[in-house]
Amino acid sequence: MAIFSKPTVPRFAVDVYQNEYLPEGGREVNAVVTVSATGGGTIGGAVGAPHLYSPGRGPAAAVALMVDCSGSMDYPPTKMRNAREATAAAVDTLRDGVHFAVIGGTHVAKEVYPGGGRLAVASEATRAAATYALRRLSAGGGTAIGTWLRLADRLLSSADVTIRHGILLTDGRNEHETPEALRSALDGCAGRFTCDARGVGTDWEVKEVTQIASALLGTADIVADPAGLAADFTAMMETAMGKEVADVALRLWTPVGTTVRFVKQVAPSVEDLTDRRSEAGSRTGDYPTGSWGDESRDYHVCLEVPPAGIGQEMLAARVSLVVPPPGGGSAENLGAQGLVRAVWTDDVAASTRINPQVAHYTGQAELAHVIQEGLDLRKAGDLDGATAKLGRAVQLAGVSGNADTAKLLAKVVDVVDAAAGTVRLKAKVEEADEMTLETRSTKTVRVKK
């Protein structure tokens, strides 16, 4: 079992990177906002530790593990065994005092442990009992992931905790409920708990797994070899146990006449948050970012401001971080703020200079997009279109220094000239390699500041 020392409330910081200079009449303002949470200290006095933490135990948390038990998990039989062992390893990583449950998922959702519509509280005894209960898991039935998520939501919501998190494993397509039913379940769970999703083997649908992780602000990945499940589950649980503040929102205030074109997370992965905005007052909107531990993330904010003349300047946006207080009411500020500015100049060199952070992440977002387009075109039989898109992806991966994505692309295409984006589609591609590229296409590398 992992040993965790008593954590302290992290301190948040906001840094803004931009070229604030615009030509006369210029309207588009771009900025990369880096949000960092570091351990120790306090949160500037705005949010106190008591409602975030259980005395001596760290943040109050609840975790639901959802394990696919459909019939396909028995092919090969080692897959189900690996899933049981991985879930047991994750349970063993639970910190004392964390509420948890294990769910077996088929075309229905069943409580494996503790049962009775409740959560267990992690201790040496309950971890051992959960491991014993996992021996009963067997494969049989269909797949209806929405039912798993709804049960997880009911169980997680029964605990008076700050952090609510799910871990979901599937090996097949969601064939026993409609896409609309899954979408409805995700809409119902969004904002109530975060969830990491994993696909094991190669018979699952990438877009379903990434849809789950995206909607619930978690991570998605492939575990092509079931033997790697235990290590992956343990790492996911350790990350979950490191979360200290839940439901953090990026708050954006803009002045009259300014329009928000988009807000995207761009590191450690690309995630468009634009349509997830919730209004928080006059000219103010909140964009959800989920739970935070000791980490840093980057966000690309694009604004359209009113045109102005040479020498004029304005505050284009104010960026801050907020969390909902216990018991409801107005959101509490986390004590970190950044300013986005616009200054109009006749200095052509200044107004045409592209900020390195903005340029880097614009390329990273395009990289994720063209990989998805290229793979979709390949599946549709448009080989020329796929070649062009994946060639552009190779070019962008090289320019940005995204070596991991470049290696994944090299398993799908033969690279003739990386700088020019000249490639040939491989005649034969391993399914696991193509699915790995698709699943990890949104992962980015940080810009060197």
Describe the structure.
This protein is an alpha+beta fold and 449 residues long. It folds into three domains: 11-40 and 246-352, Immunoglobulin-like (Sandwich), CATH 2.60.40; 61-244, 3-Layer(aba) Sandwich (Rossmann fold), CATH 3.40.50.410; 356-440, Four Helix Bundle (Hemerythrin (Met), subunit A) (Up-down Bundle), CATH 1.20.120.1690. The protein contains eleven helices and 22 strands. The protein has helices at 77-92, 124-134, 145-157, 179-189, 206-215, 229-241, 348-352, 356-380, 383-400, 403-409, 431-439; strands spanning 11-18, 21-22, 28-38, 53-54, 58-59, 61-68, 99-105, 109-113, 120-121, 163-170, 194-200, 220-223, 245-253, 259-267, 271-272, 278-279, 284-292, 295-304, 313-323, 332-344, 413-417, 422-425. Strands 6, 7, 8, 9, 10, 11 and 12 form a seven-stranded mixed beta sheet that branches. Strands 2-20-19-13-17-16 form a six-stranded mixed beta sheet. Strand 10, helix 4 (179-189) and strand 11 (194-200) form a beta-alpha-beta unit. Helix 8 runs antiparallel to helix 9.
